[in-house]
Amino acid sequence: MPPGLKDVAALAGVSIKTVSNVVNGYLHVAPDTRARVQGAIDQLGYKPNVAARQLRSGRSGVIALALPELQSPYFAELAGLIVQAAERRSWTVLIDQTDGQADRERNLVAGLRRHAIDGLIFSPLALTGEELTSGGDGTPMVLLGERVSAGPADHVAIDNTAAAADATRHLAGLGRRRIAAIGAQDRPSAMTAHLRLAGYRRALAEAGLPDDPALVVPAESFHRADGAAAMERLLALPDPPDAVFCFNDLLALGALRTLLRSGRTVPGDVAVAGFDDVEDGRFSTPTLTTIAPDAARIAELTIDLLAERIGQTAEPPREVWVQHRLITRESTG
Q1: Whole-prediction pTM value?
Q2: pLDDT at 55
Q3: Is cis: bond before 267, omega within 30 of 0?
């Protein structure tokens, strides 16, 4: 007979209920107890009977993940990490791309029940907190991104303003005095751009540097072509920048290409910093200084919070902040 909960409990010296709590991912288990139970599971080769669990619980073991765009390296990496975290709970993840369109986002949150989804992880771009509250069908949900905070569901995010300030502060600390920003957006829904612009401006003020409107260049989207075009605008200024903070790594990679074609050196003539720590930036020439959100932690926390909501934990929505770090590479010397 394959090992069961009773065997794991005996080996770990805990109750069957404690083993069940660990297997089902409940957060309120002491770390040393969780480690002891997990060690017993690994030693015995215990595998949960997923079909029996689903029959008992009335759940499908399937969750949905909805992201604005899957071709974005950051979202693609995050999706992979969420799938890995979900697999540890024997969950299957269905992935959808909304393109940030209001109708698609609205239909998504309104119609999950008929697809037998236990929960939703959602990064909205178009819908507001009020729309999520009024249009939802009661499916447990965890929100990502910056569009909705203090809203109707648990929310996992990083402090974009502080992170952008860290990147800009780094450039100012190198002695750069004309620091540009690429990625500003006027749309009310573009919260990521708004927060990163606020952080950029905060760091300029701290360093006693002027906030020159000519050095803030908008980007319709956060793609390489937008970064390349924005850098061309900056180089055409009578007094071009000696550093640039790009609101994501794809913009920075586009900016690097324009600088290379123009004959500028990086970081000699212009230092460049990005945001997201995507893999391409680790292999670009020069390699890219960037802000690295703890994507693995975001994935783990998101799955943990969703598990609690699926387990019908009656608590107010929570705001959970995840750390970031500045990684300095060749593009800033």
Answers
A1: 0.80
A2: 47
A3: yes
